[in-house]
User: Fold these one by one.
Assistant:
Number 1:
Amino acid sequence: MKKLLVLVILLASTFFVFTACNGGESKSENKTETSTDSLELDSASCSNETIMDPNNPKPMALMMREMVKNADKMRAKLESGENLDSSAFPFLRFYLVEPTDPNVLEPQFFENARLFQESYKAIFAHQQEQKKYYNLMINRCVKCHESYCSGPLKRIRKLPLN
Ligand code: HEC
């Protein structure tokens, strides 16, 4: 568990060094390029199974796997009547690390990420209603995945609490 987290952080920082070395100023230009490119692709990404390479996962894919494991743990704790502590479940900034398909990095993706982050924080701001806010957070996973990566939806739809 801890090992994987360290690996994810390592991978994430390598990515940053890599992008920094590739000329920081041209970053904004690249962004507009990719967002126009992705107009046709629209909801492409990992709805297509072949884009998800399970043997050579990118940092974003690794973080997503970590997020599923965390959600499973949250769910189990809530089911057994325990409260969730924010220090045990830090928010993973998945939107800052390299995805398998760079076309996903467009404004709508970042807006979905922002809404997801808000709903994640809301769980810890509502200690008395954590089950409800946990389910709202999972809804945000679903919302983004409906647009960008429909492959894991089956898995994600098992996460809500009754
Ligand atoms: C803002 C959009 C967004 C949100 C929110 C989001 N995801 Fe993802 N998710 C993605 C994208 C894009 C990928 C593809 C990442 C890649 O392949 O690099 C992905 C990949 C995944 C994968 C596949 C990882 C693999 O093994 O390749 C799983 C599982 C997953 N997400 C689960 C979740 C869960 C659970 C949540 C909520 C706790 C969540 N996602 C929230 C966009 C999102």
Number 2:
Amino acid sequence: MTDLPEKDERQAKADSPIHTSGELSQAQPKPHAQNVSPSPDRQVEGQAEPQSHSQSVSPIQALADDQPNDEIEADDNEALERDSAFGDNESIASSRTSLTSGITRYRQENGRRYHAYRDGKYLFPNDEKEQDRLDLFHHVFNLLFGGKLFHAPVDNPQRVLDVGTGTGIWAIDFADQHPSSHVVGCDLSPIQPGWIPPNLEFEVDDIEDTWRHKPFNFIHMRMLGGAIKDWEALIAQAYDNLEPGGWLESVEFEVWVDCQNDGEVEMPKMIQQWQSLLTEAGERIGRTFIVAVHMKNWMEKAGFVDIREDVIKVPNSPWAKDPRWKEIGAYQQHNMLEAASAYGQAHFTRVLGWSPDEFLVLSAEVRKELKNLKYHLFSNLHIVYGQKPE
Ligand SMILES: C[S@@+](CC[C@H](N)C(=O)[O-])C[C@H]1O[C@@H](n2cnc3c(N)ncnc32)[C@H](O)[C@@H]1O
């Protein structure tokens, strides 16, 4: 098992649902505000933004206010039993683009489909199941952030890059809400829809190569843990490709499941084994999962200033008493149940040499533990943003 030097740090942070650090240590009124409704109130260029400066409580802070205690309050056992039906997987319908053969000659392996361009680089699937999971994650982020697509105080973003855009769902929403901006979504997989806002373009490319774009005002990265070989180089490249005054924002889970009540119940063993081995496989191939806890430091090193970090404790199953946290936990449980098969199959079979059947058995055990609401499972989510000096 790989040592996790950050564990102490993570544990310390896990003491509170929301943590803030960085130069701006106080919750700050946001100079910008997002139009959070889907489209009727879409913001028009030059028009005053729909939320005023008087709304000084950010959704992150609002969540913090909802959970004034260090711990998220758990629901009682009977309610948890009733809710254990949560987690039946229903897929979200999604339209997909048809594209040229080279980048769509996908690798099929053990019932899952993987990207073709730069084959073998990214070890998670890109099939419909995974796309549904990514879209569901976007919904979870909307619930967590009250519909806000970003937190950096970006003013009038003109050129925007979404690094590792996945299904492009964030980029589509961003382009919709900021019609005067030009948005680029970049990914190894051409899994984005064809019908997109006119101010958005998707490109199939490797973000670890040298970028050849005009500078951006805002660069967004979300859920890239386990994907990148040299994080410092990627962040330096983001810095170089920002206009002075431009912002970089990263949203990353720690990709580690913790148990809030680990003093009362035994830690779920199969989940521990799954994530330890996954972490080890990530280290072996040089694409670490331990990203979120380093992001602020990496941004500082690259030269970013006014860096702010918020950490939110997100339940991984519907064990919380508060209805909003329960709902978020229910969606996260669905995500985790899917992740238990997507997140690891290639790592375990290609890197650690397990047979597909051995992995299936582990994954079934992990799913069983994920469904057991006696474990108050959660993961920490880090939102970090910083500015390139003017
Ligand atoms: C977990 S998904 C996150 C997708 C999206 N950012 C979101 O939040 O929904 C990670 C994405 O990064 C893409 N990716 C991984 N390595 C990449 C690389 N070197 N260049 C471009 N995209 C990459 C994967 O193809 C995948 O779509």
